[in-house]
User: Which sequence fits this backbone?
């Protein structure tokens, strides 16, 4: 049985002056088994449990978690799921062990605990199929062991790309930000776009890939939104909040941000 795909959290391509926002995509896969592709970040833990609950699921119901890579904004909640088999690529394990302390997005201090669960399964090679019937492909660049899932649906073929393709710009230009190997990133992006009709990027809404005679066109299919709710009854006049058009927003919360683009 082919699993159904539901994007539980839409990624958001935000960066702040105090660091990367880290709002990543998290996808629920439901079929014979129930799984997650990535787990979002620590800040979303409560909301993740809440969104699962609204779908009649508790953390115990998650049979497997596929981690695209071991960065905090994708992996931080993996230990929430007490019964889940955890899939990670062998080159990502190596990256965590050898470079986890210099790649500051790696929560290396939780890795030992993940290893000790006895539920960690290592994926090896360029591609394969999980026991749950899902096809995966090694799509390195952002990190050495990044992987993507390929899921066929009645709407066409979906690639759950995570940070192999973080957003629409990377899909269109092949130019990536934050990659340990930009040449490998370009090659991974090309391979994903060759195979997919739809892409769930790591930090943007779903993208449509149109295969045309001289290549392909990538379209954003939904508005990429974020909401920042300032937890203040009155915003201090010293706090300057601007929207995506650069206009200053005064006083009111929540503040909605939309990424300018071409949902089409
Ligand atoms: Zn990410």
Assistant:
């Amino acid at each position: 049985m082919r699993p159904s795909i539901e994007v539980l959290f839409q990624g958001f391509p935000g960066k702040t002056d105090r660091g990367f926002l880290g709002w990543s995509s998290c996808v629920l896969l439901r079929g014979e088994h129930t799984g997650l592709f990535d787990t979002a970040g620590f800040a979303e833990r409560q909301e993740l449990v809440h969104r699962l609950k609204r779908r009649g699921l508790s953390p115990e119901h998650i049979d497997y978690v596929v981690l695209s890579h071991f960065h905090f904004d994708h992996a931080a909640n993996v230990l929430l799921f007490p019964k889940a088999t955890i899939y990670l690529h062998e080159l990502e394990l190596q990256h965590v062990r050898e470079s986890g302390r210099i790649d500051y997005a790696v929560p290396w201090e939780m890795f030992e605990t993940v290893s000790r669960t006895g539920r960690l399964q290592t994926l090896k090679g360029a591609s394969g199929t999980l026991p749950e019937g899902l096809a995966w492909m090694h799509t390195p660049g952002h990190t050495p062991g990044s992987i993507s899932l390929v899921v066929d649906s009645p709407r066409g073929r979906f690639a759950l790309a995570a940070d192999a393709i973080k957003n629409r710009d990377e899909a269109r230009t092949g130019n990536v930000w934050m990659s340990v190997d930009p040449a490998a990133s370009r090659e991974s992006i090309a391979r994903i776009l060759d195979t997919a009709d739809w892409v769930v990027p790591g930090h943007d809404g779903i993208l449509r890939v149109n295969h045309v005679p001289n290549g392909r066109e990538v379209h954003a299919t939904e508005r990429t939104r974020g909401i920042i709710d300032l937890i203040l009854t009155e915003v201090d006049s010293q706090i300057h909040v601007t929207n995506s058009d650069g206009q200053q927003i005064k006083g009111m919360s929540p503040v909605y941000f939309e990424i300018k683009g071409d949902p089409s």
In short: The domain at 4-220 is CATH 3.60.15.10 (Metallo-beta-lactamase; Chain A). The chain has a mean pLDDT of 89.
